[in-house]
Amino acid sequence: MAAQLTHHDTPFSRAKTNTILVCDGVTSPANIGGLFRLCDSFGIDKVYFCGTKVALASPRIKRTSRSTHLLVNYKDNIETLDVLKQLREKGYTPLALELTNSSSTLRDFKITNKKPIALFIGNEKTGISTRVLEQIHTHLHIPMYGNNSSMNVTQAAAVGLYALLEKTNYI
Q1: How many distinct structural domains can be found in the chain?
Q2: Which range (2-6, 37-41, 71-75) has the least confidence?
Q3: pTM, whole model, 2 decimals?
Q4: Rounded distance, CA 73 to CA 137, Å?
Q5: pLDDT for residue 13 is more than 90
Q6: The domain spanning residue 157 has which CATH number?
Q7: Fewest C-beta atoms under 10 Å: which of 11, 60, 88, 166?
Q8: How far apart are CA 93 and CA 89, in angstroms?
Q9: For 7-150, where are the E strands, in sequence order?
Q10: Closest CA to 26 of 134, 109, 120
């Protein structure tokens, strides 16, 4: 019979992926903690929490992150458009994970170069702000098969990062 393993007895290889996560107005402590944990799981280089001051003393962030907030590089309380400009200057390809009238599915998206990726996600209720979406040329969405057209921001980031990292051969 198979035995369930814990993270203490599972040999994982640590890797960095040349991918950054940019959060445009994510405010929920549960989502912030979940995003730290997600970034650690996928070897994400850095996470930016734009428009949000991360309260690391928050019990909810600590509980949800399972201490990964101590392991993942992050920057908070900064302007999303400033981050976008800096990342472009550093050679990152910005991608917006948002359902728009010009978005392609993650499944159909092709990566045609080896440039590092910056995945932008948005606020829990309003998504990525219009002013940011206007500055990012590539919009991607997760194909949905039910009645709902969205999912929790941490869940969406997990699906998006997994799909992109698989396409770049990190997974």
Answers
A1: 1
A2: 2-6
A3: 0.93
A4: 26
A5: no
A6: 3.40.1280.10
A7: 11
A8: 10
A9: 19-24, 46-50, 74-78, 93-97, 104-105, 117-122, 138-141
A10: 120
C-alpha 138/C-alpha 93 separation (Å) is 9
> Would you state the pLDDT for residue 22?
98
> How does pLDDT run across 129-170, given as a tens digit for each residue?
999 999 999 999 999 998 887 899 999 999 999 999 998 876
Parent domain of 55: 19-167
Residue 81 backbone dihedrals phi, psi, to 5 degrees: -65, -30
User: Which tokens is 117 given?
Assistant: 């990726």
Q: Which residue stretches of the chain are H helix?
A: 29-42, 59-65, 80-89, 130-133, 153-167
Q: Is residue 6 part of a domain?
A: no
Three-state SS at 137: coil
* Triad 29, 106, 12: Cα angle to 5°: 60
